[in-house]
Amino acid sequence: MTDPNDMHDRLAKLSQDLEARTASAPKADQGLAGPNGIGSAMSTGFRVMSEFVAAVAVGGLIGWQCDRWFGTSPFLLILFLALGTAAGFWTVYRIASKPTRWVGPR
């Protein structure tokens, strides 16, 4: 059998080696986290895409329903699709023009 003191020494050496290796290893998710990381950029991109698609879809549905009510097919559909597209671009512009927090040089 091995001596318990020897086991504790080996465990301490292993812990030190693991800490040294962990400290020297590059961070794999360094670009993913934080306010300027790729995760934040993807979140903003998905928000822009979903709000633009929603604006166009809502405009199209309103135009289609108004055309059914008033019998003016396809004029109101085209009009409200254009308005929905304009609203979508306006939303994209508002999101893109928000000032971002400047972190400074790294």
TrEMBL record:
Recorded superkingdom: Bacteria
Keywords: Hydrogen ion transport, Ion transport, Membrane, Transmembrane, Transmembrane helix, Transport
GO terms for biological process, alphabetical: proton transmembrane transport
The keyword Lipoprotein is annotated on this UniProt entry: no
Job description of the protein: A possible function for this protein is to guide the assembly of the membrane sector of the ATPase enzyme complex.
Keyword check for Transmembrane helix: yes
Family statement drawn from the similarity comment of this UniProt entry: Belongs to the bacterial AtpI family.
Xref: InterPro entries: Atp1_alphaprobac, ATPase_put
Recorded GO CC terms: proton-transporting ATP synthase complex
Name listed for the protein in its UniProt record: ATP synthase protein I
Pfam families membership: ATPase_gene1
Transmembrane segments: 46-64, 76-96
